[in-house]
From TrEMBL:
Coiled coil: none annotated. This is Prephenate dehydrogenase. The keyword Amino-acid biosynthesis applies. It comes from Leucobacter denitrificans. One of its GO terms (biological process) is tyrosine biosynthetic process.
Amino acid sequence: MNEPASRVHSTVRSRVHGTVHIVGAGLLGSSIGLGLRERDVDVTLEDLSPTSLALAADYGAGRVRAAEDPHPAIVVVATPPDVTADTVERMLATYPSAVVTDVASVKLAPYLELVRRGVDLTNYVGSHPMAGRERGGAIMARADLFTARPWVICRDGETPAEALALVEAVALDLGAVLLEMTPEEHDRSVGLVSHLPQVVSSLLAAQLIPATEQAIGLAGGGLRDTTRIASSDPELWVQILGANREPVIALLESFATDIERFTEALRAVDEPGSKRKLADLLSSGMRGVGRIPGKHGTSERFVTVTVLIDDKPGELGRLLTELGELGINMEDLRLEHSPGAQIGFAEIAILPEVADRAVTDLAARGWRTL
Ligand SMILES: NC(=O)C1=CN([C@@H]2O[C@H](COP(=O)(O)OP(=O)(O)OC[C@H]3O[C@@H](n4cnc5c(N)ncnc54)[C@H](O)[C@@H]3O)[C@@H](O)[C@H]2O)C=CC1
Ligand SMILES: O=C(O)C(=O)Cc1ccc(O)cc1
């Protein structure tokens, strides 16, 4: 008899021993389930919506929990933020021997609510994987969603080592990078790197509504980059922003001050000093973007060469093969394509010392670069 697909996939042993029960089988819950199933972990699922539950099980994120199932070793609460405290409390009461974690995007509000209710939090460890997608639901779930992404753990002095180890085992099994923070540090940090960008992106995209088709047709990579997350679920974000309002309000006020300063300098652009003010503000942006970690993060080790590729099958493959033949090691690749255009743009990141040679050698082979 053939083995089920999930067994065939499993090549790496899991750090997790025992059953993982996931409550909320949407994007996060199903992605966690899929990733753990790939490692043969026993995963049970629960969701308020029978359809979401059935879909998650159909996609292979785990099996629907049955009444006779043994108690789980760990429960992962992946419900929306406004019911996170309720669900954590219910899970701690239902499975007193299990460790309970949650993956909500805010950490302080659910924690304070649980403390306010007098819940014994010995077996609770809050957490938050910094990985997601614009759309929710099991349909969007991916087993590799957390690979190389930060996963914040918020423990307190009372957290037993075994409880911490179990939550860490789940995150590590999914390929995430562990980070420890207090709930306050977490919420301030995500306010800056996730919540402010969401508001700015949404409000920026909203400016496009009255634009003509002709104007929108000119849109390029810059607009796409700055508005990608504007298609995120408004209902989820109302919950996240509402639960983290203090840090987000402070950040929005500071941002509004910068917009005001910039507008004033632009209004007075012909007066002495104004151009410098504009340049200073724009260069601050350059300094800020240089701080974003990533392959090319702060080191500024790579330069980008843009290669024009004809919009026909096999062209990108040919470019990659020829780069290999030229001995040029590509560190990163990004593709841009304008709708309606017969050309695409492959932005390749390479070491600065090979950039000139790359441009010359590619040109000799007929490639056009920018
Ligand atoms: N969407 C994202 O990019 C990220 C979301 N998160 C957090 O993960 C959590 C889940 O978000 P998503 O998976 O995106 O949402 P989702 O909407 O895809 O899934 C949530 C699921 O929870 C179920 N649910 C709602 N109330 C429930 C209850 N009381 N009991 C059982 N199930 C219930 C819903 O039916 C739904 O299937 C949220 O707390 C969110 O803040 C964390 C990181 C990224
Ligand atoms: O798409 C992105 O860049 C994200 O950062 C997604 C995201 C959304 C919500 C979270 O709580 C964590 C991550």
